[in-house]
Amino acid sequence: MANTKVAIIAANGGLFDAYKVFNIASAAAASDAEVGIFFTFEGLNLIHKEGHKSLPLPEGKEHFQEGFKQANVPSIEELVSLAQEMNVKLIACQMTMDVMNLEKDAFVEGIEVGGAATFIEFAKDANMTLTF
C-alpha cells in the first residue's frame, strides 16, 4: 500500500470504537500507508491519558473483556503506542478540546492539536477515508 493515504475520523469513545480505529490504522501503517486519525468529541477519550485506560463497553457486552484477555488482544494503551511507533499521525480536535476545557497535556505524548482545517489538509488527497 505504498503511496496510499488513509484518513480516519474517530468521533466515538467506547472500547469497541478504539479497537476499530487502532486496528485499522495499524494495519494500514504496517502496509506502508500514510495514516492520520482525527479525534473529535467522544473520540478524544481514545487518546486521553486516563480516559483510554477505562473505555466503556456497550451495555450487555461486558463479557468481551474476558475474551480480549484470553485472546491476548493488546490494551488500547499498547495500541496507541504501536500506532505512534508506526508514525500514525494523531490529531486532537482543537474546537472539541476548547468546548470540553481540555489542554494538550491531558492527552498522550506526541499528538498534534488542530482544527478541522488541519484534518482536511491531511485528508484532501486520501485514498481512503473512514469514520468510527
Automatic annotation (TrEMBL):
Gene3D superfamilies attached to this UniProt entry: DsrEFH-like
SUPFAM superfamilies: DsrEFH-like
Organism name: Salinibacillus xinjiangensis
Name under which the protein is recorded: Sulfur reduction protein DsrE
InterPro entries associated with the record: DsrE2-like, DsrEFH-like
